Recover the amino acids of this structure.
């Protein structure tokens, strides 16, 4: 009750909705969005923005430090690091989008079905999900990448296999709660078939947290794919990829820091941007989380 | 205990509550009646300075403290200790993993009641729990283990233990079953009569209000449309809206008692 | 009589919350009165075919609901839930159109407009979303959607309890004006009195008293019905009565109300069978004493 007196308002009627929304636009989220737009644009526009073509070797310009001609310097085979990062962004973003796309489609589909149907169907789906969750994600990805040929597609497959169960869980718990809403009962009483109920009511109303989770996860996927590439199990030459770049430059860190540092920074900035954007989305879409609700 | 003059609460320039006069003395019960959006809850919250985004003008004195100009420290002194706020669903405001007894003891300590001695606070707690007609055993339970009516009475017990002189209650019974509501109302009446507590009640239920309040303020769209002694307002409503509210009260046949 | 529950036991998982309830939905409106935890909403869900009884049967005409033609049943029986029974993301028009039979799409817009007018709303609201409407308007939309299939029976689950009193009065007028039969689930005695000729009082998953609403409220034969009635505050009346220990948990055997009952006697350790007393059925050993106005008695 002490908390109540200090003012956590339980009465919805009196408190204007305005108060539950972030008072100032979330500055971190805005920063994340701006960074992300920059990253995506630079990846899309890489062929026009990059001062040098992808993978162009300049044997005479090996390991040059950052300069006017090479903003981020060059690597041990004379490639322009800045250009490689722009092109590498395409790979990394493709991996993120592909992994999350596959995971979300598979995971959410299974999840809403499990959550809405309940009973034995739910049990079967959730047990299968649990089996996948029981494997350590990175280890499973590693094993898959070893068995299959290392490539960008392998990375996508390997990460997606360990990623989708989280979406199943999330969607299932959302769908289970939506399934008890009276508008779903009303639809059932109208004889609307279950698949239509899921499609019309359960799915759209379960998507908000999934959306938030997607943007929170994007950074994680990029980090994981970078880790796989770093271990030599992901993207292969001549594909430009950030993780691969870090791996190839790792021995040079003490002598030629720029070869490793800039791709590392690219990974960090992108992951960070996705994360703060996700946090911002979560706060904006779910007024009950975060600090927006506490009135002081 | 409560004196309000020309209180105006605005959100973003929009006037949501306009109360020219509101007084509640010790042992009195005043009710603010209105429907959603009438500004009744906003009025109540502004008495504790709990409307942070609002532009407020006027004069609000609660337990001798000028609320609108008081320092945050001064406000904290009256909040919780001398003035208790009782909400519609108190369970939501109780920390779920803490036994009610522990919670009450902490609150006493925080406000320096019972001189910090375990024996002193135990006595105060036992007395407060008895005053709201709860079994002392309730103190060993967790918030989710008590019913809505018990939680509401515990909130009142906490107020008594902390030595509250004023109780501000926002729809304290509208989430409760009628038989439970009757008990909570009974407790409120007793506290008022035996301890001289000042009670400001916000409610949409005119019938309920008529059984407990001395005076009534009827609010609509932020304005007080009628106020006066409860008996007079109910018997000879002067404002058409009060009449509409009275007519909307459905009666249950069968004289009680 | 469209629906009938026969010794229906209902529950979630293995725990029953409604015990062997027998109840006819007769003409003139039927009220199901109970407080939270009484099992009234669970019973309503069974009548809607949303919950299968653990034992006993719901009869639809001369067939049990398990065997009945569900398509026909869905057209005959429709729910009116509280105002939040609208998909927050759907436009009002789409929500209502969902109720229209498939294949009637061309005339759907016209029909939606008619339905909105029938419940006293501006047809222009069809393009809005639920959060843009007031509580009373939303409740009318919920009613309009139920009416779309022209049902014979409406199952109303607390249709006005979230509304302001002046709005509630208008919604009750609307409900009273509809042709369909009614089963009304509520804790509000005044609303039952307004809409239902017959009522059943539910306590701890059992029907404790059934009969004409007027008799039931004017002169209750079960101590719980009386406690319920006396707890309702009246305009200018005395403070509401709190009888018995309201928080006591009903025991597994014997009369479920005996721990709260001011009239309880040792005999109440034995569960009372429902029996006819004057115009109603009561499950209470001391029904005659209650009718005679007894208020005290040994409290166990």
């Amino acid at each position: 009750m002490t908390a109540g007196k200090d003012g956590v308002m339980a009465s919805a009627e009196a408190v204007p909705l305005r108060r539950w929304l972030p008072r100032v636009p979330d500055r971190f989220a805005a920063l994340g969005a701006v960074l992300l737009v920059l990253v995506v644009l630079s990846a899309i526009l890489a062929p026009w923005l990059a001062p040098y073509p992808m993978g162009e070797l300049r044997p005479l310009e090996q390991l040059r430090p950052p300069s006017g001609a090479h903003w981020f310097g060059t690597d041990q085979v004379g490639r322009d690091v800045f250009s490689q990062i722009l092109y590498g962004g395409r790979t990394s973003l493709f991996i993120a989008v592909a992994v999350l796309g596959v995971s979300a489609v598979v995971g959410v589909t299974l999840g809403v079905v499990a959550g809405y149907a309940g009973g034995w169907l739910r049990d079967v789906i959730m047990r299968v999900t649990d089996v996948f969750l029981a494997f350590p994600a990175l280890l499973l990805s590693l094993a898959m990448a070893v068995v299959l040929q290392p490539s960008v597609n392998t990375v996508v497959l390997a990460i997606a296999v360990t990623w989708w169960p989280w979406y199943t869980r999330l969607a299932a718990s959302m769908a289970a709660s939506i399934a008890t809403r009276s508008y779903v009962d009303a639809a059932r009483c109208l004889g609307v078939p279950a698949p239509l109920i899921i499609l019309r009511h359960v799915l759209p109303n379960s998507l908000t947290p999934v959306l938030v989770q997607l943007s929170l996860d994007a950074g994680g996927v990029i980090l994981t794919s970078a880790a796989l590439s770093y271990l030599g199990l992901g993207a292969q030459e001549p594909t430009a990829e950030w993780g691969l770049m870090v791996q190839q430059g790792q021995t040079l860190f003490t002598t030629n820091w720029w070869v490793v540092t800039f791709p590392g920074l690219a990974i960090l900035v992108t992951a960070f941007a996705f994360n703060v954007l996700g946090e911002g989305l979560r706060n904006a879409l779910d007024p009950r989380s975060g600090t927006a609700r506490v009135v002081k | 205990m409560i004196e309000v003059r020309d209180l105006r609460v605005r959100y973003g320039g929009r006037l949501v509550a306009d109360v020219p006069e509101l007084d509640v003395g010790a042992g009195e019960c005043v009710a603010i009646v209105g429907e959603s959006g009438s500004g009744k809850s906003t009025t109540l919250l502004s008495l504790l300075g709990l409307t942070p985004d609002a532009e407020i003008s006027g004069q609000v004195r609660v337990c001798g403290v000028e609320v609108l100009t008081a320092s945050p420290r001064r406000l904290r002194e009256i909040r919780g200790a001398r003035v208790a706020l009782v909400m519609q669903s108190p369970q939501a405001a109780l920390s779920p993993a803490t036994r009610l007894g522990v919670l009450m003891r902490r609150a006493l300590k925080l406000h320096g009641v019972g001189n910090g001695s375990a024996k002193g606070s135990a006595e105060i707690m036992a007395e407060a729990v008895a005053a709201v007609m709860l079994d002392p055993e309730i103190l060993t339970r967790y918030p989710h283990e008590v019913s809505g009516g018990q939680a509401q009475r515990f909130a009142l017990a906490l107020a008594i233990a902390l030595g509250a002189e004023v109780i501000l209650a926002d729809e304290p019974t509208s989430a409760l079953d009628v038989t439970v509501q009757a008990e909570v109302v009974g407790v409120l009446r007793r506290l008022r009569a035996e301890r001289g507590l000042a009670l400001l009640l916000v409610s949409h239920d005119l019938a309920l209000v008529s059984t407990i309040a001395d005076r009534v303020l009827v609010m609509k769209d932020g304005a007080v449309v009628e106020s006066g002694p409860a008996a007079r307002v109910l018997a000879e409503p002067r404002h058409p809206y009060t009449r509409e509210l009275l007519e909307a009260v459905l009666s249950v046949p069968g004289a009680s008692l | 009589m469209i629906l009938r529950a026969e010794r229906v036991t209902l529950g979630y998982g293995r725990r029953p919350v409604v015990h062997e309830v027998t109840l006819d939905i007769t003409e003139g409106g039927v009220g199901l009165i109970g407080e939270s935890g009484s099992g009234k909403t669970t019973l309503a869900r069974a009548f809607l075919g949303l919950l299968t009884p653990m034992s006993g049967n719901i009869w639809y005409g001369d067939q049990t609901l398990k065997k009945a033609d569900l398509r026909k049943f869905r057209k005959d029986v429709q729910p009116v839930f509280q105002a939040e029974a609208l998909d927050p993301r759907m436009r009002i028009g789409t929500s209502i159109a969902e109720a229209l039979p498939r294949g009637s799409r061309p005339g759907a817009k016209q029909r939606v407009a008619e339905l909105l007018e029938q419940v006293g709303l501006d047809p222009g609201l069809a393009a809005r979303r639920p959060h843009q409407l007031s509580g009373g308007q939303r409740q009318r939309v919920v009613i309009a959607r139920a009416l779309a299939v022209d049902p014979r029976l409406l199952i109303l689950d607390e249709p006005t309890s979230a509304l302001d009193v002046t709005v509630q009065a208008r919604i009750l007028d609307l409900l009273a004006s509809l042709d369909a039969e009614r089963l009304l689930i509520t804790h509000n005695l005044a609303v039952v009195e307004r809409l239902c000729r017959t009522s059943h009082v539910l306590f701890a998953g059992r029907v404790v008293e059934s009969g004409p609403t007027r008799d039931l409220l004017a002169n209750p034969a079960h101590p719980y019905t009386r406690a319920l009635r006396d707890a309702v505050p009246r305009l200018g009346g005395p403070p509401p009565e709190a009888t018995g220990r309201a928080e006591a948990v009903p025991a597994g055997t014997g009369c479920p109300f005996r721990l709260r009952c001011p009239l309880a006697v040792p005999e109440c350790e034995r569960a009372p069978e429902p029996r006819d007393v004057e115009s109603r059925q009561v499950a209470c050993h001391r029904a005659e004493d209650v009718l005679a106005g007894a208020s005290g008695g040994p409290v166990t």
Observations:
- Residues 1-24, 287-296 of chain A have pLDDT under 50 and may be disordered.
